[in-house]
Amino acid sequence: MKKKTLYLIHHSHTDIGYTDRQEKISRYHIDFIKSVLYFLEEIEKGHHPEWSGFKYTCENYWQVEQFLAHSTQEEQNKFEYYLKKGLIDISLNYLNMTELVDEDVLNKKLAQGKHYTNSIGFETNSAMTADINGFSWGYAESLFQHGVENLYSCLHTHHGMFPLFKKQIPFWWETQQGNKILVWNGDHYQTGNDFLLVPNSDQSKQYDESGYSVERANEQFKITEERIFRHFELLEEEGYPYSFSPAMISGIVTDNAPPNPRMMEVIHRWNKQHGEQIEIELITLNEFFHILRKEPTKIPTYSGDWTDWWADGVGSTPAPTKIYRDAQRKYRIANKLTTDSNKGNPELLAQAEHQLMMYAEHTWGYHSSVAQPWNTFVNDLDYRKAAYATNANSFISQHLDELLAKLGEESIQMNREPFYKIINPHKRELMDYARIYIKHWETIDDSYYGANKTDFVEVLDCQTGKVIPCQVLDTALGKEIEFLVNLKPQEERLIRLRRKPVEQSLTQKWNHAHIGTELVSDIASYDGYTHRISTYSVETDYLKLEIDYANGIQTFIDKKNNLDLLHPNRLAAPFSGIYEVTPISTDACAERRMMGRNRKGRITERTFSKLVNVRLISNEEVYALLELDYELKGTKMYTVVLRVYKGIPKIDITVRIQKENEWAPENLYIALPFSYGEDYELFVEKSGTTFRPAIDQLPGTNNEFYLLNNGLTFTDGNHSLVVAIKDTPLIALGNLESHLIELNSKETERKNKDLVYSWPMNNFWETNFKVDLSGFYEFNYSLLLTSNTTPNDSVERATELNEGILVIAYNPKK
Q1: What is the torsion angle, in degrees rounded to the nearest 10, for the CA atoms of residue 280, residue 282, residue 284 and residue 287?
Q2: Secondary element (H or E) of residue 8
Q3: Rounded mean pLDDT of 532-538?
Q4: Are 130 and 248 in contact (CB under 8 A)?
Q5: Distance between CA atoms of residues 369 and 17, nearest Å
Q6: Tally of domains within the chain
Q7: In a domain, 638, yes or no
Q8: Where is the Glycoside hydrolase family 38 N-terminal domain (predicted)?
Q9: Which CATH number goes with the domain that contains 91?
Q10: What does pTM read for this prediction?
Q11: Which of 3, 482, 573, 589 is the most exposed, having the fewest neighbouring CB atoms within 10 Å of its CB?
Q12: Residues 408-417: pLDDT tens digits?
């Protein structure tokens, strides 16, 4: 047998909130680095020769950042000293993230690690991740742009799976921009612990009731021998091409594990007895990639999205996730408004970025969230997690307020003339609707709006002197006045509200067959009369909806192209609900564990919503407003609000839900059963990349669901239907039934044309998902028809729909 080497990389896996309070986890990792400094000093002084060869890799820069903020200059000097000696290493990944984080925040955080290592003259170009089951395609480009040339992935296949149908192999991951990083498609982040090399852990078999036993230690070493030799035998049987095998190892088998130099005691014993056949060496992350890059074996190249199996955690916290998404939109708008002369408040911006990053970190709760949902610690950590989203929103809102104030935004004032500044913050020309809200105490030309006045105000464009058609709606924010504007990139325009002249009609049109004496308008169109808006159908110059009284929207016609955009195989009407619950036949945790890669069981009960009422709330010049009430198991209210605009081919949709409490595993989906003719493609957007699900992905990855940034588009190459998803980022693709999971391949490309569902709620994970989904929710979407746009442009349009046009109260300088 040719000599083999087992390379071990020692690290402490960061799960922020899984094993303890989030702030306590920070303290642990600070002290972990300090203890490593102590161990290395002891070894250097000759006090512990049995620990010689000990090395430690900081799993991410966040750990180092915490240490630098809570250490003395002397400790920092020691840290740099051991870094440069090669006994400590830093992974340039910031944290183990979900795909919820957007590329702007991610890039800023990745830059911090590279800036620190450059500042101290420490050469590193590698990153590792642990636990998480995938990364956005844009993540690879972000790593590359910040000096990361190597990525070691330690996936956890619990409810997930590694890519390429095989682990412990390298590949080149090509980004959408054509750059490449070298990836080691590795095993679990504590595989090295399975070899029983750590003597003082709960895995150890060296102890009995009376304590340490030489006899038991020898018995344990025999198990170590069996496992290591068998490990390399299996690799050889599988045609593994390398003479080495890498494995990650922790001080003990737990997340947030303390470092442990005592593994060196067993490693030295092993090398003394078996080093000529298989040598064990503790190395750093960067050392491993130096070794790998010297190997002559040809490494294949793949490109595409590495879709995250664990992205669905956000569905267990729909309320704070909605707050987080609002914070992301404000963050992007603030960046678009920032100039050299108007920077807002940089300190608030930095605080917001930190909170955005921490909420998107992959840990979604305490480890017993499902087993003991009543536990004080479970709820304590849940509120702490939600606080990241809330704090991010608060900080970025204040920062945005600073920016808007410098643009002239006025605070509320008595007797203010109703001037407003309309701002297009985007870098493209935009035609869309703007909204102004008038409080009950505000006046228009010295007149109060009044509770019953809806046809009272008009919008005046101060540049052209023209009146812009508007429509008024009563809302909790006050009278909502909405109107269509066309703005050039980053254009600002002044408008004024003024009292509309009251016109009294002297004639009635009831001499014609338009409406009966009970004031119900239910006469179909006839020669000389067109009935375009009703509870049966809605028609504008651009589109037509027909509503079936059993299900909801049954046709959705693009009138320009005479094409029904609903999927021919749809199971549910657009924006109607689907509820799933899996009865507990074992216990709440075991039932979920048995689901594997599915997010439901074979005995899952699935219910489709049933339409019970349709109401036409408003129909005026700007839009028609309809409410569709459904019955749906698991909810006490399920209402779909359609705002169908008349000036552009756009519909705003709000889904209102009152969700009931359920301990059993459940899912709630909102149907998005759209297409664009027979020959269309689906594109989605996340983390700076636009790609085709089930096509532009790494082989062997997840094509069941995706976590998006702003939305998706169905396109035939010339025309597109854009779906902007504002509040809830998850979509599911394809079959809702429990089924054998097809990992992504050429054969699964057909799924690109499968049914799409928005997936706002789930609680299937058996450990750290929040189990209680009950409460009141409001999820917002927009549909827009576009022509002659690329997929990138269409998806960017979804971003603009979500961020909208800004309106601020403004007092013109006189």
Answers
A1: -40
A2: strand 4-10
A3: 92
A4: yes
A5: 11
A6: 1
A7: no
A8: 6-302
A9: 3.20.110.10
A10: 0.95
A11: 3
A12: 999 999 989 9
